Amino acid sequence: QLVESGGGLVQAGGSLRLSCAASGNMFSIGIMAWYRQAPGEQRDLVADITSGGSIKYADSVKGRFTISRDNAKNTVYLQMNSLKPEDTAVYYCKAYCKAYVKLYSSWRWSDYWGHGTQVTVSS
Prior knowledge:
Layout: E1 2-5, E2 8-11, E3 16-22, E4 26-37, E5 44-49, E6 55-57, E7 65-70, E8 75-80, E9 89-101, E10 106-113, E11 117-122
Parallel strand pairs: 2-11
Antiparallel strand pairs: 1-3, 3-8, 4-5, 4-9, 5-6, 7-8, 9-10, 9-11
């Protein structure tokens, strides 16, 4: 289970910090990522980070957003600075996890998604 928090309403130029905590019967967590989806748009990658700390950003957020993770807490963060109205979207956390799947009675790697948190940036 992935639970996001930290969304809200902020003025342009402001900052927000999103958090996403993974919990449950997860043996291992690989890459963790943030995606966002604006109304009528597809869900796009914002940033991702491997368990070893390698990071990738979408061009639109480079220099403004910072992704980080705490492996001991199974948590990924997204610090968002200099926010723009075009950053308005629902932000989703995704994690590639090895978890026990009852249906198959085995441990399996799969993508898990959070339910999303709304970020609204006013002009």
